Each structure stands twice: as structure tokens, then as C-alpha cells.
Amino acid sequence: MSFLDAILSPLRCIQDYAKVIADADVDWKNLVVLFSLGVYVLETYLLSRQYPYYSREAPPPALSQHFPGETFQKSQNYGRDKARFAFVYSAFGEILGIGLIYAGAQVWAWKIAGEWLTKWGYVGYEVLNPFHGILLLASAIPFLPLSYYQTFVLEEKHGFNKMNVRLFITDTLKGWALTFFIGSPFLAGFLWIIRWAGDGFIPWLMSFLIAFQLVMVVLYPTVIQPLFNKLSPLPQGPLRTRIEALASRLKFPLTDLYVIDGSKRSAHSNAYFYGLPWSKHIVIYDTLIKQSAPEEIEAVLAHELGHWWYSHPLKLMIISEVHLLLLFSAFPAFLQSASLLTSFGFPTSVARHPPIIISFMLFQNLFTPVEALLTMAMNAVSRYFEWQADKFAFEQDVSDNDEKAATEGKDGSTDGVAADDMGERLAKALIGLHKENLSSVWVDWLYSAYHHSHPTLPERLRVMDDLRSQKNLREGASAKKEL
Ligand SMILES: [Zn+2]
Predict the structure, then answer these.
(1) Which of 13, 283, 314, 442 has its CA 20 to 30 A from that of 331?
(2) Model pLDDT for residues 37-63, shown as the tens digit of each residue
(3) Neighbours of ion ligand 1 (CB under 5 A)
(4) CA of 80 to the centre of ligand 1 (A)
(5) In this predicted model, what pLDDT tens digit does every residue of 368-388 receive, in sequence order?
């Protein structure tokens, strides 16, 4: 069996299964609604498991010394408010989604889109069809009041919101414009490829998607991010010296080092890197710089560079390609399924030759439960990657950079600072971030397994402690040998 066969045979298997399912006599509309309700019930159940934790009176023992009464209470209140909001948001989304399906929103959008195309004189040009855009807007607009509430009431109440109404409106409009200008050509290419290549569209479509993702890697930081934020070079100083030294020691191809004005919108903080394999850029939130000491930010970046060291972004990209490949391989079976369209109320004149855009959108709805499980699996992978990156940061030597950042003038043996390690600094930074962001201190394990892409703070602190005791044991053993 050749390599290609090894890849293609499971895909054929999926295609055969999909064909059996697609040909079955099923009430697709009610099945989609049932799937959506199933995911909603599961997520609501998880949230109701998490909710009572916000009423606990004291932090978990591992965090009690870091979260004094007032900070703990604030984080509990913030968590409770966010959870209440999540109950309302998801219930609203569910009612709206099901309401739109039963009200025949898809058929309505198709009709309007057809009328517009006729008016503009583009009948038969599926790639120019505004159907998807109309549906997107119809389902996005009702969420605006909720998103307004989230920013100006919820986040505001807890001191995180830095936006004004004007910025909120321009952000929303810019977001929609971007979806239009990037989404339309993307969708047009997507539809054109399936139409042109027929049932054998998969290799072509996959190549197109990978090319599109690579273009976005370049476009996002250079064109899109500057529409929303200002990035300026990180000024010379101890922080810059530390990060450059860390990057050069690890041979990280650092091209630019930026500060982003995250504080314009929110007091939440972060740091990340991006770029092509030979040229990387690091971006640090101004809020993080304000909150943490240079050696702590260095530890955060040592964690970030751990992601790079283990090629996590590439691995995540490969997983997402495989995911799309599996999704697409089931699609040909539904490409000509008239019953899928008629069950959603499309007239037989449309269903007889199903437009690709409609088939694909309805087909995607059938995957809601699979997608929920996949998200959970992806979060597990992501938590493993976070653990690896933490371990990587822990293993970095602090002494080199402490010497380079001589401006601080610390002599470890006297003030005790140099006695710490990168793990301790990372732990300090994580605790600091957790406090500043008022993140939840109590987390239900099942809720966390489903939703969290990062291990919880107590889990991460425990990893640092374990690594430290292993290291001490090793050092103890080798010291004995020397004796
Ligand atoms: Zn990370």
C-alpha cells in the first residue's frame, strides 16, 4: 500500500459511511435542532457545575497565601457575574438559532439574495451570492445588545473596560468590514474550487486552505491587527535586554519586539509571538509591562518560546488541517442531497440542484456534536502543550540574563533574588496575571476539561514545585557522587 493509499483509504471509508447516512430517510432539520439542543444542555450542565464554586468562602489551600480576602472576593464576584451572563447568552443564542431555523431564515436569505442578484444582473453567479453574508448579519445583529452589555456593564463593573461607545461601534463595523473583504473572496474561491473539481475537490480545497492560512499569517499582524491596535517597538531597557538575550540564547529568529496598546480596550494582559519560520515577532501587552517586573515578563516569554521550541503552532495547524480534511471528506455525500434542503423548507426547484453554499452550510450544522467533542480534545492537547511550555521555561537558566540586565544591579547572594529560578519567576508572573485578571480560583474539573485551553493555576504551580523537587533530588544525587 502506498503512502497516498494509506491517507486515502480512511477518507474513502468516511465517504462511504457519509453516503449511507446522506441517503437515509432522515428529518434533517429536527436532527440539527436536536444536536444543537444536546450541545446546549451539555454546556449548561457544565456551567451549573462550575457556578456554585463562586460562592465558596476561601481560596484553595495552594492559593490561599496569594489571594488575600479582598482579591479573592473580587475574583469570585467577577466569576459569578460572568457565569450568569454566560447562562443568559447561551440561552439567548440557542433560542435565536432554533427560532431562525423554524422561521425559515435560510430560505428567506436565499430568496432575498436571489432578488438582489436579479436586480444587479448577476443571476447564476453563485460565487457572488450574498446569501451567506445576509445570514451572518441576521444572526450577528441580535447579539449586539448582549455584547454591549458585556463590555459596558459587566466588564465595566469589575474595572476592566477601557472602551468608549465610539470605539465599540468602530470595532464592530471594522470587524464586519473585515469579514466581508476577507470572507467574500475566500468563500468565492472555496465555492469555485468545489464547483470546478466536483467530487474530487479535496486535494485542491486543502491546498487552497493552507495557502489562505499562510497568507493570513502574514496579513494578520501587518494589515489587520494595526486596524485595531497600535504596535510600537519596545524601548531599550532591562526588559528589552532580557528578552533579546533569551531569544539569542535559544536561537529564536527574533526580528521585532513590540508593545501593543491593549490597555485601549481592556485591562486584561498577555504576550505572544507570531511570524514565519525565519522571522518572528514578539508582542507584549502594555498592561503586562505595567503589572509585572522585567524578570517575570522574561519568564512569561520563556514559556512562549517553549511553544516555539516544540513547534506547537505548527502542530496545532496540522491538527486543524486533519480536522478539516475529515470534515470535507464527508461532504461529497451531501453535495447532491435534495432531502437535506427540502427538510429546511427550500423549494424543490432549488433542492433539485442544491447550491453548494446551502448544502455546505446545512451539512456543517450536522457536525455540532462532533465539533463539541473535538474542541474538548483540542483543549486537552493544548493543555499538554502548555505543560510542555511551562517545563521548558522552568529549565531555562536565569543567571546569564541577570548578568546582562546589569542595570538592575542585583547581587543574588545578598538580596536573595538570584536564589530563585525561572520556574519561580514564571509562577510569580502567573499568579500576578491571575490576580490582575481576577481569573477564577476554583474550577470544576469537568468544566475545565471541556472549556480550558490552559491548566488551572494550582495545577501549573504544582508542576513548578514538582520540577523543582526533581531538580533538587538530581542535584543532591550528583553532589553525593562528587563527595
Ligand atoms: Zn502558553
Answers:
(1) 314
(2) 999 999 999 999 999 999 999 898 888
(3) 386, 389
(4) 25
(5) 899 999 999 999 999 999 999
Task: Please tell me the distance between residue 30's alpha carbon and the centre of ligand 1 in angstroms.
Answer: 40
3-state secondary structure the chain: CCHHHHHHHHHHHHHHHHHHHHHCCCCHHHHHHHHHHHHHHHHHHHHHHHHHHHHCCCCCHHHCCCCCHHHHHHHHHHHHHHHHHHHHHHHHHHHHHHHHHHCCHHHHHHHHHHHHHHHHCCCCCHHHCCHHHHHHHHHHHHHHHHHHHHHHHHHHHCCCECCCHHHHHHHHHHHHHHHHHHHHHHHHHHHHHHHHHHHHCHHHHHHHHHHHHHHHHHHHHHHHHHHHCCEEECCCCHHHHHHHHHHHHCCCCEEEEEEECHHHCECCCCEEEEEECCEEEEEEEHHHHHHCCHHHHHHHHHHHHHHHHCCHHHHHHHHHHHHHHHHHHHCHHHHCCHHHHHHCCCCHHHHCCCCHHHHHHHHHHCCHHHHHHHHHHHHHHHHHHHHHHHHHHHHCCCHHHHHHCHHHCCCHHHHCHHHCCHHHHHHHHHHHHHHHCCCCCCCCHHHHHHHCCCCCHHHHHHHHHHHHHHHHHHHHHHHHHHC
At 437-477, the pLDDT tens digits run 888 889 999 999 999 999 999 999 999 999 999 888 888 87
